[in-house]
Design a protein that fits this description.
Keywords: ATP-binding, Helicase, Hydrolase, Mitochondrion, Mitochondrion nucleoid, Nucleotide-binding, Transit peptide. With about 775 residues, the protein is an alpha/beta fold. The chain is built from 30 helices and 18 strands. The protein has an eight-stranded mixed beta sheet, with helices on both faces. Strands 9-16-13-10-12-11 form a six-stranded parallel beta sheet. The chain has a two-stranded antiparallel ribbon with strand order 14-15.
Length: about 775
């Protein structure tokens, strides 16, 4: 009885399908029936089809990764085969290929979200499924059997094909929901607390050294409660100290540090923080947002957008370039808030020299040579010290304490160090007494909105930010000067500085953890990196905004994809601010995530074993770079400790060894520069623990700086220098030079070591 009933039901279904007359309207009927099937509700956030504007931009289907479909045994067994006959695989292949070639099917599929790429991928998977499965479901088996026998229409395959396509591309069934989740057109509405109050926005506009931030901070100090949001830890720390010195209790909040002035840990009414750490739910009387032009930054612009739209303060004081005035005014119109503009002029003048420096012999006290790569920093500082001049060195990857120590050394009128060699890291956060800025180059590597590396001439904004460090109001030099190292760069610099600053035109946005979680609900099998890609592809922004590049986020997501973590924890790990160019930092990040996934706390002892603490002073530049990486790893631990306190429990102990490491790095930077001077002067004496000039020479070789050593002249000193400066010295050539050099210097190296050892013994005897 049950078998007859089954046959009866199948027959009725079968007859209904066969009743469709093969006409030009058959394909349209299939489309209409299938479209109705797609509208069935499934889970939360199911909505009606979105408006035409939300579907105007097709998604980037190259980001859709097909899922594997398991060949499960049919629930109704071999009923289809019993009712019809076994399917001939070769005949079945012909039928499927005919289906694939039908333009009507391709058009119908495109209406359901399958473009040519997805249609092809779905068909390959569907064909493989049909040909490899042992037993098909009865209804599909009957349809295919009828078509093979000439009793059915090939278009009848389409609903089963689409059902399979949605199994391998689940995003097709929820595209409207995904578009709504990734709709970023009205970010002002993300902050209801800020929209509930009428804020007063004051724009302090002016160049560097114009007093714009000073006036905003004065209002900050007068307020009953206030928050300062800056781009750097150094700037936040400066306001923290300035506020507490002025007897205005102020806390410090950065990604890696929380300092509360109240001994009981109660929050102060004032807080100085890095901009990513600002609270958009705490009410304040005054908020200060520094360097507002960075709202257009391809990587970090979202943080300024969030602060500007979301801070709950009666007064919002923004400080930055005048080039951002029009944009900020327009942006505030979307929140119904007016902008009051206060313009400032530079307090001390600076001029562009008519002559390039051309030769390092022409350096004067108070000069700062600006380079745009660490290798150039090493090369220039070596050449400066070979002339008997002592120089300070500042670049981005140095710890904040080391930067401050080098700045203090350069600023000290009693210190013999009168020359500074630095990257554009001096553009913000450091008070320096510079008389003349010298651009060693005008070309800087950068990352564009797509996350792609580029090498381009510096912008007017960048040039002014750096040049403005000369002759600051608080320094001993009341007038500043700017020039270039090379004669051919000087007219280019003049042209750059005389151009108007490019206006700010867009603000950055970034997907939030909540948005990513909603995406993951609909696409539970997708990787986090793939979720972000699809989000960015589907995201809709109006003309005022852009989506910040997410390459660093995706890099970290891919690195830990194999580690079992819940989505929220995975997202937090991937927002960690690490330098992915440092292999040791990346390895540490991976180990942190793996240990975290095992639910094993990362203790102080575990961290010490990992970084091989205690560490010794660097013997060469390679050692110094490693110490900088270790400092970054400890920063990473501290950053994670404020997000996962139970799993990273020893933040205070880690901070203590980080401070010790900072001192080691400071000493290392001083010793490296002394070694460079000693090597150039051919003095084989030890200038640091375990550090001799031959060991420096070997370090130099490893860093592509052997060109100017007197001992390298038989190998071609001028050629080596030119290759280093032009970046044409290959690793193979470097290794060859190193081997030959080591062989020639083998005996002097031994003598130097013995001399250093004897000198140490003599010192001990005298003591």
């Amino acid at each position: 009885m049950s078998l007859n009933r089954c046959i009866y039901l199948l027959s009725r279904s079968h007859m209904r399908r066969r009743a469709c007359v093969v006409t030009s309207s058959h394909t349209a009927a299939v489309a209409n029936n299938y479209t109705g099937h797609m509208c069935a509700p499934k889970g939360p956030l199911r909505t009606c089809p979105s408006s035409s504007d939300s579907a105007s931009r097709p998604p980037d289907t190259s980001l859709f990764v097909p899922l594997a479909v398991k060949s499960e045994v049919a629930k109704d067994g071999a009923v289809g085969e019993e009712l019809t006959q076994p399917l001939d695989k070769s005949e079945l292949l012909k039928v499927l290929n005919r289906f694939y070639k039908r333009k009507e099917m391709q058009i119908l599929a495109s209406e359901q979200g399958l473009d040519a790429r997805l249609f092809h991928q779905a068909f390959i998977s569907f064909r493989k499924y049909i040909l490899e499965i042992n037993t098909l479901n009865a209804d599909l088996h009957i349809i295919l059997s009828d078509i093979c026998c000439g009793a059915g229409h090939i278009d009848d395959i389409f609903p089963y094909f689409m059902r399979h396509a949605k199994q391998i591309f689940p995003m097709l069934d929820c595209m409207d929901d995904l578009r709504k989740i990734s709709d970023l057109r009205v970010p002002a509405n993300w902050y209801p607390e800020a929209r509930a109050i009428q804020r007063r926005v004051i724009f302090h506009a002016g160049p560097t050294n114009s007093g714009k931030t000073y006036h905003a901070i004065q209002r900050y100090l007068e307020a009953k409660s206030a928050i300062y949001c800056g781009p750097l830890k150094l700037l936040a720390h400066e306001i923290f100290e300035k506020s507490n010195t002025a007897s205005v209790p102020c806390d410090l909040v950065t990604g890696e540090e929380r300092t509360f002035v109240d001994l009981d840990g109660r929050q102060s009414s004032h807080v100085a923080c890095t901009i990513e750490m600002c609270s958009v739910t705490t009410p304040y009387e005054v908020a200060v947002i520094d360097e507002i032009q960075m709202i257009k930054d391809p990587s970090r612009g979202w943080a300024w957008t969030r602060a500007l739209l979301g801070l709950c303060a009666e007064e919002i004081h923004v400080c930055g370039e005048a080039a951002a005035i029009n944009f900020i005014t327009e942006l505030m119109l979307t929140t119904g808030e007016e902008v009051e503009v206060r313009n400032y002029t530079r307090l001390t003048p600076f001029s562009i020299s008519d002559r390039a420096v051309e030769n390092l012999d022409n350096l004067k006290p108070g000069d700062c040579i600006v380079c745009f790569s660490k290798n150039d920093i090493y090369s220039v500082s070596r050449q400066v010290e070979s002339r008997g001049l002592e120089c300070a060195v500042i670049y981005g990857s140095l710890p904040p304490g080391t930067k401050l120590a080098q700045a203090k050394k350069f600023n000290d009128p009693d210190d013999p160090c009168k020359i500074l060699v630095a990257t554009d890291a001096i553009g913000m956060g450091l008070n320096l007494s510079i008389r003349r800025i010298i651009f060693n180059s005008l070309v800087k590597p950068s990352v564009n909105e797509k996350g792609e590396k580029e090498v381009a001439t510096i912008t007017t904004s960048q040039a002014l930010q750096i040049a403005g460090r000369a002759g600051r109001f608080s320094s001993v030099f009341k007038e500043g000067e700017v020039t270039t190292m090379h004669h051919e760069d000087l007219p280019v610099l003049k042209e750059i500085l005389n151009r108007p600053v490019d206006p700010v035109e867009m603000a950055g946005l970034h997907p939030t953890a909540e948005q990513v979680e909603m995406f993951a609900y609909h696409l539970p099998q997708a990787t986090l990196s793939n979720l972000i890609d699809i989000f960015v592809s589907l995201s809709q922004v109006d003309g005022l905004y852009f989506v910040c590049n997410v390459e660093d986020f995706k890099f970290l997501a891919d690195m830990i994809q194999h580690i079992p973590l819940n989505l929220r924890s995975r997202y937090v790990f991937c927002t960690a601010p690490i330098n992915r160019k440092q292999p040791f930092v990346c390895i540490s990040f991976l180990k942190f995530a793996r240990q975290f996934s095992r639910d094993e706390p990362l203790t102080f002892n575990w961290v010490c074993r990992h970084v091989n603490w205690p560490l010794v002073p660097p013997k060469n530049i390679k050692d110094l770079v490693h110490l900088e990486a270790v400092h970054d790893v400890l920063d990473l631990y501290l950053w994670l400790s404020y997000r996962f306190m139970d799993m990273f429990p020893d933040a205070n102990l880690v901070r203590e060894i980080q401070q010790e490491l900072d001192i080691i790095i400071q000493a290392g930077v001083r010793n490296i520069t002394r070694l460079i001077r000693a090597a150039e002067a051919q003095v084989p004496e030890a200038v640091g623990p375990g550090l001799t000039s031959p060991s420096l020479r070997r370090a130099r070789g490893s860093k592509a700086h052997p060109g100017t050593s007197p001992n390298m002249r038989p190998l071609g000193s001028s050629l080596g220098s030119r290759l280093v400066q032009e970046g044409l010295l290959t690793q193979e050539l470097l290794q060859q030079l190193q081997k030959e050099w080591t062989k020639e210097q083998k005996q002097p190296t031994g003598v130097a070591k013995v001399s250093a050892g004897m000198a140490t013994k003599n010192k001990k005897k005298k003591k």
